[in-house]
Design brief:
Blueprint (H helix, E strand, L loop, with lengths): L1 H17 L6 H18 L5 H14 L1 H20 L1 H12 L3 H19 L4 H12 L4 H11 L7 H8 L9 H18 L3 H6 L5 H6 L1 H18 L7 H19 L17 H20 L6 H6 L4 E6 L5 E5 L3 E5 L8 E4 L9 H11 L4 H14 L1 H17 L7 H13 L7 H12 L2 H19 L3 H14 L5 H10 L6 H30 L3
Length: 531
């Protein structure tokens, strides 16, 4: 009964979002949160203070994704109104008007690099609007952005899913490095197939075949340095691989290597170097800020994450409100429980870099006060529905995590793991994907299911390192169907009530990704590693 009630909300959510007259996420997710709340109170008998504290925690936690979404919408609205998007569209058309080249440069290599720097769903939020600006249909771009943003995710945000996601397991440094190494190899094999499937969402297979040489040059330009670096480091593979891949892809596209010739249909498409430099200024500044605030060797990351209390105040029974020197706003011991929640104003990629970049760029592009005000007002309005969707999602997730090893989430994971036994290698990645599906993060998936994967590996005498690598891969491929990311990219592109349509399309490459992961784990990994 516990397993049925644990799975039921997820099955119901999927049904509500993919049925013929599908409910939009901003209605479906809050309703599912209510269902989970009832199950927790009636069946699991969870204390009302624990439930209330988790709901309050979700209301604080939702500030992270919603401010990222607002920041991305704001930046993209600014790019459109200022004319930067139009200049970049013409410039990319001059590099090569071939749509496959443009998709691989922006949707694959550029997004790969952004994932390495930031994570938090920012690659789709930044890359997708550029592709729409180039004339590609928004709904298909949303699907492509989600599918493409999978290979680099395990090393996203300078390796956070790997080094932080598995942190509670207290693994040796050498084992974490080997997990990263195996993870990169599995992703590398998936990269032979997944970008092609993503491209097929926008262009025909005939076009893909005609441009196959360029596609694989772009793929290998990212994946080879990514895989090589992952043998010695788990922080920079995606960032460095994406940067090298982007550089190579632009040069190769400019020379037309491996690309079918396509006529440039943009009228008056010639742009000066000065225009391009000005149009690239906001994006360049955005990337620069992201990188310098994420690299541990620089002082900014530590400053923005400084949790030393600056001032605090007791808010009655609600809890202790605390603000740190790094402007981390925290609510501690909510309703007398041990539950805490926080929002990192400076570190979450929202105010910095999106809002800061826009405020700096407004005078550079000489935007009027009325246009600037309109950009902010429109962006606020566009975040209303995603806010309700994400509140529902985070309340649901928080309540499903209540109970530690007896939580609804752990019941699902442990039941599936025990049912498959020694064949768990075939299914391990899918558990990681389930974690990412409803938690919205490869890191949270690893934090949630890392212990389940480790105990299953020990019980079945499978390689713990390999199973944890599959968990990390699963959390990355789960990004394709992750509710938070779907809501985010839909809101940034102003797509309404299409979440179910997106999931139905992106679940196929996710399943294939899992099959590739299992095959590599069974037949390729043993050749290179002692498992």
């Amino acid at each position: 009964m516990a397993l049925f009630l644990s799975i039921f909300p997820i099955v119901l959510l999927i049904y509500l979002m993919v049925k013929r007259n599908a409910l939009p996420s901003y209605l479906a997710l809050p309703w599912i949160a209510v269902v989970v709340l009832i199950i927790q109170l009636i069946f699991f008998g969870t204390d009302i203070s624990i439930v209330s504290a988790n709901i309050a925690s979700a209301l604080v936690a939702v500030q992270t994704p919603i401010t990222v979404i607002f920041g991305a919408i704001l930046f993209n609205r600014f790019s459109e109104v200022s004319g930067a998007t139009d200049i970049l569209r013409k410039w990319l058309g001059n590099i090569n008007p071939n749509p496959v080249a443009q998709i691989m440069i922006i949707g694959w290599a550029f997004a790969f690099m952004i994932e390495g720097a930031s994570g938090f769903g920012t690659p789709a939020a930044i890359a997708a609007p550029i592709l729409v600006g180039l004339g590609f249909p928004p709904l298909r771009v949303a699907m492509l952005a989600l599918v493409m943003n999978s290979v680099p995710v395990s090393f996203g945000a300078v390796g956070t899913p790997t080094w932080f996601g598995f942190g509670p397991l207290q693994l040796a440094e050498a084992q974490i490095l080997e997990i990263g190494s195996m993870t990169s190899l599995i992703h590398a094999f998936a990269a032979l197939v997944i970008p092609l499937m993503a491209l097929s969402l926008i262009v025909s297979w005939t076009e893909i075949r005609k441009n196959l040489i360029f596609i694989y040059i772009s793929v290998f330009a990212c994946v080879i340095p990514y895989m090589l670096l992952a043998q010695v480091n788990y922080e920079f593979p995606s960032l460095v691989g994406g940067a090298i891949g982007l550089f190579v892809s632009v040069i190769v596209a400019n020379k037309g290597i491996g690309l079918a010739k396509v006529e440039n249909t943009l009228e008056g498409s010639s742009v000066s170097l000065a225009q391009v430099a000005k149009a690239l200024f906001p994006t360049g500044m955005l990337i620069a800020i992201l990188i310098v605030t994420r690299i541990q060797q620089l002082p900014f990351k530590a400053m923005m994450n400084d949790a030393t209390s600056w001032f605090s105040a007791q808010l009655g029974s609600l809890g202790l409100f605390d603000v740190s020197y790094g402007l981390i706003f925290s609510l501690k011991n909510i309703f007398g429980t041990s539950i805490n929640a926080s929002y990192k104003l400076l570190y979450v990629p929202a105010f910095i870099p999106f809002v800061v970049t826009v405020l700096i760029a407004v005078p550079v592009f000489a935007l009027s006060m009325s246009k600037t005000k309109d950009i902010f007002v429109t962006s606020f309005k566009q975040t209303k529905n995603p806010f309700f969707a994400l509140v529902g999602a985070l309340v649901m997730v928080n309540l499903m995590l209540v109970g530690g090893d007896n939580s609804m989430v752990k019941i699902i994971g442990q039941s599936f793991a025990h049912a498959t036994g020694e064949y768990w290698t075939l299914f391990a990645s899918y558990l990681g994907a389930v974690g990412a599906f409803f938690s919205g993060s490869n890191t949270v998936s690893n934090l949630t299911f890392g212990s389940v994967q480790l105990s299953t590996a020990e019980l079945t005498r499978l390689s713990a390192t390999l199973i944890l690598a599959l968990q990390s891969v699963g959390g990355a491929m789960g990004n394709m169907v992750c509710i938070n990311n779907i809501v985010a990219v839909s809101s940034v592109l102003n797509i309404d009530k299409q979440e179910g349509t997106i999931i139905k399309k992106t679940v196929v490459p996710m399943i294939i990704y899992g099959i590739i992961a299992a095959l590599v784990a069974l037949f390729i990994i043993p050749i290179f590693y002692a498992v």
